Amino acid sequence: MVAAQDVPAGSSLRFAYADPTNPSHLFARYGFLDESSPATFCKIMLDPTPELVAMGYDHSTMLFYKDTGDVSAEVWDILLYHKVLGDQPADQQAFYQAHVNGDYATKEAMHSQYSAATVQALLDHIDDFLKELEYLTDMAAGRDLNTHPRLPLLQRHNAFVKETFLNVRAKLMEDYVV
Length: 178
Prior knowledge:
This protein has a two-stranded antiparallel ribbon with strand order 1-2. By secondary structure, it is mainly alpha-helical.
């Protein structure tokens, strides 16, 4: 580490590891878990095309909020563009143009038009990921902690993610008629 300015002797030095809103990044990169984090990545693994990047696709902005069950706007945009409109090139292009041109009225109209399909795509993603977490939890059962010493930390991380996903799912079920 190199200081950008003189640091008086005895001063504290601080280093920001990452965005504190997402424990998965800290866990994957540095091996520790901040369970006070308010959010986690939504875990949608897409190849970031230039269009997706222009629309805000970045793991650091694709968030599910643990306590409220809220979903970041970027998740809704990417789901609509990529998953729902993926087989409708004209609407997909219209949504993309509205997004990059700041045409919020058109963008919101398309979100409204495809709301049910977008909510269903998000529920499908959540359910698929929860099944994967359950599978991973089952695989961890009975493992020797001497052979797998990080397993308790992995299990705590997965429990954090599961709680967050369940809160998002519950809020979706409460807020939308599916």
